[in-house]
Structures are given as structure tokens and as C-alpha cells.
Write a structure and sequence with these properties.
Blueprint lengths: L11 E11 L5 E4 L1 H15 L31 E6 L8 E5 L3 E6 L2 H14 L1 E3 L2 E11 L5 E7 L7 H13 L4 E5 L1 E2 L2 E2 L8 H5 L15 H13 L3 E8 L4 H6 L41 H17 L4 E5 L8 H17 L3 E5 L13 E4 L9 H10 L4 E3 L2 H4 L22 H5 L15 E8 L7 H8 L2 H10 L11 H10 L1 H6 L15
Parallel strand pairs: 2-3, 3-5, 8-9, 8-17, 9-12, 12-13, 13-14, 14-15, 15-16, 16-17
Antiparallel strand pairs: 1-7, 4-5, 4-7, 6-7, 10-11
Helix pairs in contact: 1-2, 3-5
This protein binds ligand TNX.
Ligand TNX binds next to loops.
Length: 518
Amino acid sequence: MTSLPLVPLPSSVTPAKGVTFALTHTVSVTGDPDAAGVLHRLILTRTGLHLTASPGSAEPGIAEPGFAEPGTAEPGRAVIDVTVDGDGPPESYRLTVADNRVTVRGADAAGLFYGVQTLSQLITGSPEGWVIPGVDIDDAPRFAYRGVMLDVARHFHDVATVTAYLERAASLKFNVLHLHLSDDQGWRLALTRRPELTARAAASAVGGGAGGFFTSDDYRAIIAHAAANHMTVVPEFDMPGHTHAVGLAYPEVAAPPALDGWDAAGGPSPVAGETYTGMGVGFSSLRIGAPETDAFVDDILTELAELTPGPYLHFGGDEAHGTPAADFAAFVARTSRVIADLGKTPIAWHEAGVAADLAPGTIGQYWGLVSPTDGADERARAFVAGGGRVILSPADAVYLDMKPAADSPLGLTWANGPTSLERAYSWEPCEIVPGISEDDILGVEAPLWTETVRDLDDIDALAFPRVAAAAEAAWSVPAGTAAGRTWESFRKRVGGLGPLWTTLGIRFPASPEVSWTL
Ligand code: TNX
């Protein structure tokens, strides 16, 4: 099938032989102003071309996009028309490239945005100038939830970094940004109901870095930027473990560090009331059952719900080895009900599936291995039994913080050693948790934990190109069910994205597994 550099692979791609659209500054863009604006910026970044304004709109050659109403461009002049037409499933689009006309038709605004992203992947340099090869594309997502997660707790990442990463993800048709906002090393979102969290527990990070936090205005700015890129923000406060930092601010809700049999991972041991800068996990816990703790949880989740327009609140639930089992089950069940009562859908890591009485419809996020161990699959199935669904984040496939190769300077290796691009590509969502079907899967999410990740360059170095493999698992048909949905095709298609990624400023490593187009 296609050798066009399209990732994630569209449902249907039919090249039009001998047809080429010449992309010059005389092309006008007509249709939906938002989508035209996105396209104008992408074309400018990729090619340096300012598209000429159409009759009746702004002057030629200036930075503003040249919009026109459909059909108002001069006869005979080349046009790119981008319009929502309401046809097809949510987030779907159709794209046709003919000699003198490109049309992108979205079922909705998101579908149109994805059609524009696909169009940007098609732009290529030739001896005759910039061209778009003739093609017919019909495309729709496989899963409704297509996420990336960024841990802003182990190292803090500021608004500019978060928005740069979400734009990268949106260009690969991800529609969820999950922010891991709290962990042992720091609390990253200011809350008026609990001001000590950021006053006392935000100025630290792994390795003793500076830390930092988002004000509520910062958080709103991220949400707005995400929305402009058709992404929903899913915020996470991780509880009842991963809460050492909470004890710096509100000691009455924190249990003493549980250090019995604990692995310091080569770093310092945690001390109650002092910042923790190591990379160990599983020693901290809230004080379960204390009225102070219940009040704390109610406060932080109420304010988070108020600040968050999206439908989901994630409450963690992972690696709570410092919390007695019965307390853990009681805590996650209560917390899921608090979130449901706030009108939001709870999400938790799969361990919370041990609780018999989670709020109905709670979503489970599976982070076990591609071949489940230690009953992780059983925990995940419990969410389906409770009327919820599952998000798949198998750690040895989509954990972007795993080293891509043994000699990579950044990253961890606990999930079956380094994760090659081929391994990141070669898994099927329906084959991870036995007994759950496609309908039980809400979607796929690729987390990036940031113990070793300090800035956007580090993010790019670990996320790329593997995040493109996760995008294909989330968006495209199952591997092997369509021509082109194969590893061999993927490594060529990704390679063709090198020039686009370079112009977008992405510092992707030149993975030797890819056949890059220079
Ligand atoms: C496991 S995955 C964790 C995180 C670590 C990550 C490192 C999960 C729910 N918990 O606390 O950062 O491994 O890969």
C-alpha cells in the first residue's frame, strides 16, 4: 500500500497516479477559519510559504492566513478548502488532493483538524518546488481515547514545555493529555483550598532540582491550548501512595514512610517532613480512615473538578505498598465515589481493581506488561465487571520513559529492559488482557515518567519516535489487518516524517531502526 509518510496509518489511502498539487504562495485556503489558521501555520513552518490571501480577505503576503468563504476564490486559482460537513463517525475526515484543488472534509472540528495534520505530512519538496501528491484518504480513529501522559512531578515541566509536547502529540492524532500532577517529590498544582501544598511541597524534584508548580491560571492556559489542539486534559493526583510531598504541607494526613523491605533504588531514604529527591517508589501513604484525610481528599478533588472542564479525574492508586490492603481497598472505593459525586468519571491505575465497590463506571488504566504478571490482568478485568472500561498502557510497549536502547543515556529499564521502536510498535490492544473485548477498551495511552527527564530535549529524546508507534496503536486498524499496517511499512513511513519533525523543532533521535528520509 502506501509509501506516503502518513502516521498514524489512515483507514484508506488511494494514491491518484500522475496527479500533483503545486503548493505555491498563490494557493488560497478557504473554509473553516480555525482549521485554515492551523493549516496556514503548518505550511509556513514546513515550507516558509505565506499563502496569498483570497479576494475579499487580508492583503497578500502577510502573516495572517488567507481565508475566503467556500467558492469565493478566483476561478482557475489553486485552492485548499477545509470544511466541517458533518458526515461520518466522530473525529473522521476525508482528504482529496487533485491537480488544482485540495479538499479536507471533517465530520466535526476534530476530524477536520486531523485531516489538516494528515495534509501537513503529505507536503514534500521536489525539484519543481513544494508539492502534495494526488491522493484520496478516508480516515477515522479506532479508539476514542488516545492519550499521552506527562509526569510533571518527578521533574517539573513548565507551561511552554507542556504545550510544546501536547502540540507534538496532537499532530499524531492523540486527543488526551494526562498530567501526573503529584508524587513523592513534589506537588504541582496550586489549590486555594489547600495552599500549603504548593507553598511547602513544590520546590523540589528528583536529584534535588528546583521543582515548580502551576498556578490555576497556568493550568487553565494548558487546558485552553489543549482544547485548541482538540485534546482533553486528564489531571491526576496520585493517592494513597506517591504522597510523601503531601506530608510536608499537611503532616496530619500522611502516614510515616513504610521502609520495611523498601528499595531505595540507590538514592536517599525518605524522612517524614523532609523533601524526597530519590527515585524509589512505594513507601508513602496517606493516613487511611482519618477524618483529616477524608477532608483533604474531598478538598483537593472538589477544587480539581472545578478547575477541570474535561470529564475525567485520575486519582492514581498505583504502587501503594505502604498502605495496608484493606485500607487501600476502602480508600480507592471512597475516592472513586467522591469523584463520581462531583460529576466526573474516575480513572485509576489497575491496582485499584482490587476494591469490590468502586463507583460504577470507574475506568482502569492497565500498566502491566504486554504479557500480564502478578494478576494485573485480573485487576483490569474488574473495572469492566464494574461497568467501566480500560485504558491500555502496557509498560514494555508504550512506557516512553524506558530506554530505547541499552546504551541510551536517558530512561529506565524495569519493564523488560530497553524498549525498541519495533517492540513499541508490535502489540495489539485486544491481546493484552484476556477476556476483555474491543468494546471494553476505552483507548491507549503512552506515559512519560520523568525521573530522568529534565526538559523538552529530554522529552523529545525519549518520546520520539516511539510515541508515533503508540499513536498508530491508538488510531489505526489492528496490526496486520490492512496493507501498510506492518512494522516494515511503519519504519519507512516514520522515516518520511523526519523533515516535518525537524521543521517543527522536534529533537528526535535518529533511531537506527527507522529508514529516515534526509
Ligand atoms: C511505575 S506506572 C510507576 C511510576 C514510575 C514508573 C517509572 C505507575 C502507575 N507507577 O511511579 O514513575 O514506573 O517507569
